[in-house]
Amino acid sequence: MKSWLARLRLDPFTLALLGTITLASLLPVRGGAAAVMDDATDLAIAALFFLHGARLSREAVRAGALHWRLHLTILACTFVLYPLLGLLTKPLAHSLLTPELFIGVLFLCALPSTVQSSIAFTSMAGGNVPAAVVSASLSSLLGVFLTPLIMGVLVGAQGGMAHPLEAIGKILLQLLVPFVAGHLLRPWIGGWVERRRAILRYTDQGTILLVVYTAFSAAVNEGLWHKTPVPALLAVAGFAVTLLAVAMTLITWIARRLGFSREDEIPIVFCGSKKSLATGVPMAKVMFSAGSLGAIVLPIMIYHQIQLIVCAVVAQRYARDGRRGGA
Q1: Which of 116, 194, 184, 109 lies closest to 150 in space, CA to CA?
Q2: Contact assessment for residue 176 and residue 186, using Cβ atoms and an 8 Å cutoff
Q3: Range of the domain at 66
Q4: What is the DSSP letter of 161?
Q5: Phi, psi for 89 (deg, rounded to 5)
């Protein structure tokens, strides 16, 4: 009983997210200060992806690059299976969610995989870590192009979304260019970044909190909480739980059906089922209008906490099964 309570406990970052939303709801930034905050978030996002590029080891890329069949399977789960599952929710979602929240559910389904937590859970479960590094990083890079295109197909111009090609151009400039610059400079700054990995983790989280505060401030100024009923928020949580359960079940079945080993099944399950809050929030800022942004990022924020809890349980189960198999 105690272990289950520990798994369900909110981690400090989730508490910080909740505190940021509360602060934005009570004291939203307005006027000239909002414009300054908006510029500050753009700079913080660029710095975040610069550091992500500097962290990516070329040795890890070479070690995992040969597993092309595994990578294609993960990419298909991320960018094909999830959008299809999102579309299947449409008949029910229209009656339970506001239009912005439904766009947020579809945006969640179109996002790339996480990097850090996918690798961490793969390692915890005893899976193929180099393959997870390559797949998760590849997913993030391809998401720059694929996420706007998928959203263009799924929702068009709803929610104030920019044209897909325009969104790709902005995302390339704000996310991919700093990422590539960081990676190219890795021979000179990689050691410094690795030595400060624990500290720089808070840079990641601080950037997300800054973007969330500015996004929710704009949304609150546009009347977010007046337009979003509590039953709709509960419905989003229900959609997130159902989506993750169905996706993980299907992905596990696909991995086994395709004959992957246990070590390769593990990164397929984790990289294929996780969605990136760290990438999603900055991308949403580029792709959607400020007034709808707060509601659109709510589903990925809820999904983020749910996937951490569920994946921790699944990783521990894989680890126990691996120890029994090796005994």
Answers
A1: 109
A2: no
A3: 32-320
A4: P
A5: -80, -10
Is 21 a domain residue?
Answer: no
Opening angle at CA 172, ends 135 and 31, nearest 5: 120
Task: Report the pLDDT value the prediction gives residue 246, as an integer from 0 to 100.
Answer: 96
Residue 238 identity (one-letter amino acid): G
Residues ≥6 apart with Cβ < 8 Å to 186: 53, 54, 56, 57, 58, 193
Residue 159: alpha-carbon gap to chain centroid: 20
Write the DSSP string, 217-245: HHHHHTTHHHHS-HHHHHHHHHHHHHHHH
In a domain, 325, yes or no: no
Question: Which residues touch 198 (CB under 8 Å, ≥6 apart)?
Answer: none
- Contact yes or no for 32/228 (Cβ under 8 A): no
Domain with 39 in it: what CATH number? 1.20.1530.20
User: What is the structure's pLDDT at 299?
Assistant: 92
Low-confidence ranges of the chain (pLDDT < 50): 1-5, 327
CA distances from 309 to 5, 9, 142, 304 (A): 11, 9, 26, 9
CA angle at 11 for the pair 6 and 16, rounded to the nearest 5°? 150
Closest by CA position to 154, among listed 239, 92, 82: 82
Q: Give the number of C-alpha atoms closer than 13 A to the C-alpha of residue 10, restricted to the C-beta side.
A: 11
Q: Decide if 73 contacts 268 (C-beta within 8 A).
A: yes
What is the secondary structure of 112-138 as a DSSP string?
---SHHHHHHHHHHT--HHHHHHHHHH
Predicted confidence (pLDDT) per residue in 168-182, tens digit: 787 788 777 888 898
- DSSP code of 89? T
Residue 3 lies in a domain: no
Q: Is residue 6 part of a domain?
A: no
In the chain, how many domains are there? Answer: 1
Number of H helices, E strands in the chain: 19, 0
Q: What percent of the chain has pLDDT over 70?
A: 89
**What is the tens place of the pLDDT at every residue in 292-309?**
888 889 999 889 878 888
